[in-house]
Amino acid sequence: MKSLTQSGSLDKLGITASIACAIHCAALPVIITTLPLFGLEFLANIWFEIGMISLSLIIGTYALLSSYPKHKKALPIVVLVSGFLCIGTGHILIESLESILIPAGGIVIAAAHLINWRHTKICRH
């Protein structure tokens, strides 16, 4: 039986979580006024956002660090860290660019999983 990292399932989950985070962060400023009409005001909650970032961090760290011994490529880890730095910069340092930096960080994190998945797929030993 293949493990989650060997089958790429964890990277697929990471890609999905990261893209969901990017969509959430990009769309929220536009649709925030309509959320209460649909009972979705929880999406604007800071704890929901922290939860999504934490989930992406946990999945990303586990997926990439467990795959690293197989393919020995640091690029996915560098890209993952860059994505989280982008998100952190948008939240903490440059709040005026938050609506650009945070979704971009989510896309970069998804790219890290995609790169990791491809390296793992190529390296079958």
What would you note in describing this structure?
- This protein is mostly helical.
- The chain has one domain (4-122).
- 81% of the residues lie in helices and 0% in strands.
- The protein contains 6 helices and no strands.
- Helix 2 (9-31) packs antiparallel against helix 6 (98-122), helix 4 (46-71) packs parallel to helix 6 (98-122) and helix 5 runs antiparallel to helix 6 (98-122).
- It is elongated, with a radius of gyration of 16 Å.
- GO terms for molecular function: mercury ion transmembrane transporter activity.
- This is MerC mercury resistance protein.
- One of its GO terms (cellular component) is membrane.
- The chain crosses the membrane at residues 12-32, 44-65, 77-94, 100-117.
- InterPro entries: Mercury-R_MerC (IPR004891).
The number of domains: 1
Low-pLDDT segments:
none
Number of helices: 6
Tell me the fraction of residues in β-strands, as a range. under 5%
Instruction: List the helices and strands in order.
Output: HHHHHH
Keywords: Membrane, Transmembrane, Transmembrane helix
Transmembrane segments: 12-32, 44-65, 77-94, 100-117
Pfam families: MerC
GO cellular component, one term: membrane
Keywords:
125 residues, mainly alpha, transmembrane, mercury ion transmembrane transporter activity, membrane, MerC mercury resistance protein, transmembrane helix
Summarize, please.
This protein has 125 residues and is mainly alpha-helical. It is built from six helices and no strands. It is elongated.
